[in-house]
Amino acid sequence: MVIVKWHRHACFEIRGSSVTVVIDPHDGASLGIAPPSCKGDVILVTHDHFDHNAVSIVAKPDSEILVMLRGEKTVKGVYVKGIKTYHDKFEGRQRGENTVYLFIVDGIRFAHLGDLGHVLNESEIKELGEVDVLFIPVGGTYTIGAKEAAEIVNKLSPKLVMPMHYKIPGLELPLSEVDKFTSKFEKVEEKPNEVEVTKENLPEPVTIWVLSPE
Fold it and tell me: How many structural domains is the chain composed of?
């Protein structure tokens, strides 16, 4: 069993049986929301922007920190693959590069798309491979919006999708609401901000879990 907790915006804590992964930590104050309340054994950063790289908030003295990893690496028993993508539709000329991460915790394959700014191409889809749980930005403005996010979900066919990087109470960014994305799917469930994921409870077909920001 793996515990997934959403710390708002694009930050997730993934607690396995022996390791905790934290991805894209923010400092909270810069965004108008609470900061993450967790510490990671492995910390992943998809790109070096202020609302995704507040590593000191979640780091321990022995944390392994991977910033915009390219290629494959195993750290503290966690397999991690970083795939180069872009923060915009112009091959990074507007907002720079972004890393899409695939990582495996207790046999569950997680993918976090960071601040992806374009629809994944067939090569990137193939490189990701099978995905059990997908963390995907849906709020537009700085990333893909609802339409592009739905297209990626349909291409990847993950079991579970947890939308992120959208408008929530207090957030001082001009992002869209999550319902623009969820309205495109039949199976949508509202969940608390901390959920249990096991291989056995992974649903089919694709199911959207909207985690509470509280």
Answer: 1
